Amino acid sequence: MELRLAQLDGTNRAAFESLLPDTWDQELEPGFARTLIRWRFHERPPGNAAWLAFDGERCVAMLDSFLRPYLLDGRRILVRETCDWFCLPQYRPLGLGLRLMREIMAGPEPSLSIGGTEATLAMLPRLRWTPLPEVQKYVLPVRVRSLAGSLLRRKWPEREALARAIPGFLPLRPLHRAPPPPGVARVSEWRPGTPAPLPLPQRGGLVQLLEQADLDWIARTPPDFARPLGLAFLLDGRPVGFSLSQLEPVASGFDGTIVHLQIAHDAQPVADWIVAETAHRLAARGAGIIRCGASGPEKVAALRRAGFVARQGLPSYWWPGTGAPAPAALDAGYLRANDAMPFFSLRGRRLGGRGRPPARSAA
Description:
Layout: E1 3-7, H1 13-24, H2 30-42, E2 49-55, E3 58-72, E4 75-87, H3 96-105, E5 111-114, H4 118-126, E6 130-141, H5 144-155, E7 185-189, E8 206-208, H6 212-219, E9 227-235, E10 238-250, E11 253-263, H7 268-284, E12 289-294, H8 297-305, E13 309-319, E14 330-331, H9 343-351
Parallel strand pairs: 4-5, 8-14, 11-12
Antiparallel strand pairs: 1-2, 2-3, 3-4, 3-8, 5-13, 6-12, 6-13, 7-9, 9-10, 10-11
Helix pairs in contact: 7-8
């Protein structure tokens, strides 16, 4: 047995891609798989990296990561976000997954982990990662069909398409509309290929940032996987917020996810307006259920006022790298690593025999 570690590059790409069906726990149609893998791993911004373990020429374990900007008490830093930590079962007693994690921990950047499997959540405290405040998952059911489809996807994913027997127009609840704050308020849809008005948040702790390079990459998401929607919020001509969301084709129609909320300051009416308007526009485009993750108090309050219901808390952990102190507060959502990527929805479509998504969302 010849075990070695390496980072993903052009020399080991084919071996790495052969491990992905096990990592993602699904076989994809070959053409779509090539498109998704190329975008997901080979076209993303520089700095993102995957660590791999090999037995000879066979790739047997992986740990992927994204390198993204954050504010730490007002200072911009780069944080490595871990994801896709997987090892073939027969190699787990050899500690290959742990060796890959130690490779990341030896790097200069601090690292952030949110959620994960039971094994991951048990391992990180033993590696002396510091616990941070949880990120709360929220859900807003909008239509009866989508709620039924979501429940079927969890219990019997191969039967999710049965929910299409329910008329798609049946509402579950009316959406709450928050009034805009005082002043001249305007919402504009961001167009890919143009600069986005991305205001810097003014708050302490660790705060996720969306910057142009990541936004441009997300805009190129394969449409059979997810369809991004960026909204800029302006007051008296000044940008006060930006929301990044996506419509996700599912076997029962479309789900929606609010991936990121970047808000300039802590004024609650601004947060209420941004969250409610984003949810309204996702619903208008066909989303029958909308999800969001949040940990900042203003965003949490805005989600609750918009009708979102808390589902579960995601434990978060911090590794300091070369010395970045653990933050006292965390403002993060689904932008981290690949948290927003709808692999579970994709699996439901495949098992239900609906590999292709609906042609378009509702206007």
